[in-house]
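JOB MANIFEST
job_type = single_chain_structure
chain_count = 1
residues = 370
[input]
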Amino acid sequence: MKLFIFGAIAGAALCILLIYLIKHLRKNNNVKEKFENWILQKRDLKVVAIGGGTGLSTLLRGLKLYTRNITAVVTVADDGGSSGMLREDLGILPPGDIRNCILALADVEPIMERLLQYRFNEGTLKGQNLGNLLIAAVTDIANGFEAGIREISNVLAVTGRVLPVSLEDIHLVAKLEDGTIIHGESKIPDEQIKKKSPIVEISMDKPYCKALPEVIQAIKDADVIVFGPGSLYTSIIPNIIIKEVAQAIGESDAVKVYVCNIMTQPGETTGYSVADHVKAIIKHGGPNLIDLVLVNSTRLPYGLLAKYRLEGSSQVEHTGMEAQKELDIEFIKADLADFSKGLIRHDPQKLAKKIIEIAWDRINSKGLLG
């Protein structure tokens, strides 16, 4: 009898709480959004996000609102700027993209993020980034790049983990349509623009490069695998031309999502459509890497697009989307863009929420989650 009374009281309390929440949520969209995020986060999908540059860090800032089980797999082919200098001077792997991903997943005060993103403007340290120097120092103290990343991630209370795709010292090699060969990630865009010849192939100077074992295991365990957004030929494809990585993704039962860039990138994807991006990934990584493609449908201001055109960039055309039948890949349009700061970018929260929603729809329909 007591158990029945207790159950009735608990049930009534739950009903009252739900009624309160429903009424309150109708009045307060912000609270509603937080509640929806909380519900999604409780399910904690295992997500592997693959890429590099600012595109990957943008995605991660949104994903951490919906799941704690995030593995960021980051390219180590960067050889320009501060990363390039440290790579040459100290012989370490490039820390820049790793740093951006750690900060995207970290729980730190704004001043700490500003410090770790600080770049020296003069003196012998001109061009160096403070966060990159910190990673270099901890790499030395911890006796290894991977261990150094782990230590910094612990200090900054990172949600999930950040992994370099490989611990090998690799450099990109690009082949253009006119036969030109370009060595080095940082040289590819400028040389491509100068030659005015499209990129036809990206490879590495170490064709038998080994992936980090933890990366392969994360892919095998994943519920969702996401590529992009980010530079097609210098951030995304460098990860999947590592054969172990492409093979693990191809064999995975995870929901595989490619987030197509909103704008083309001078020196890499000038004139590319959505389908062109997808075909380049398949060409370099093989079949079964992508289940669906997320395409931005947000209307962008004409004035802002005109500004981008002056810099050689244009909106990625949706032409060629009929190729989804040929490729057996679903193309999904969604409102994903943010241009509030005068730059056209993916909105982290819109993007992550859409990915999680789509992933759950796919998982529930296929019964992929035990």
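[summary]
DSSP finds 16 helices and twelve strands in the chain.
Residues 1-27 have pLDDT under 50 and may be disordered.
exit_status = 0
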